[in-house]
Amino acid sequence: MSIGVILDFDGTIIDSETNLYNAINRNLADRGHKPLEIERYKESIGSESDELDAYILERVGEEGVRAIAEEHLRTCLELECYPHILKLMDYCRDNGIPVAVATSSRRSDITPMLEHFGILDAFVSVRGKEDVEHVKPDPALYRLAGKDLGLAPADIYAIEDTVNGSLAAVRAGMNAIVLTNEMTGDMDFDTVDYFAKDITYEEIIEILEGKPAVKE
């Protein structure tokens, strides 16, 4: 049986979620505003951020919004990809498993980062905000990426770190493997019918090799 893997980007390939939060607060502080509450920020992770965008725009103006975006994109290039994700990508390459990216961020922002990290060519496709009317938790991004892989949804494993992203994968009929990080570890995933959560690289490989996994 052929299988495929779809990776989220922010918080899954690199720790860009923490990076953006820090960039927002540095720019708020520079303009005399109090820090953004972490819980308010978390509500937007992996999905639309219209409310948060309006909140920030009101305080820092268009110039400040541009400064945040520029700082975020620049400093993301100083980050490193999560080692377990790089190992997973190597495994997929060596075993002929196609991999794609599905991100609620703009593809035009993410693609240069993937190229910078030297992994862009590893992906069949990169699907982002420009490709759909609604981002996660809507399943549209995952459905597009799944079509790019040419596989049935049930044969695809989606690696996600957020509730919004995991819901999108499940709603697309895929198997969501949730790997949380420092920013998303305390999110409530009770509403998500995920396949597995916070497992090791070795356990992910066992799943891809068809061995049974226990849902935590």
TrEMBL record:
Pfam families: HAD_2
Bilayer-spanning residue ranges: none
GO biological process: DNA repair
GO MF annotation, one: phosphoglycolate phosphatase activity
Record protein name field: HAD family hydrolase
Source organism: Salinicoccus sediminis
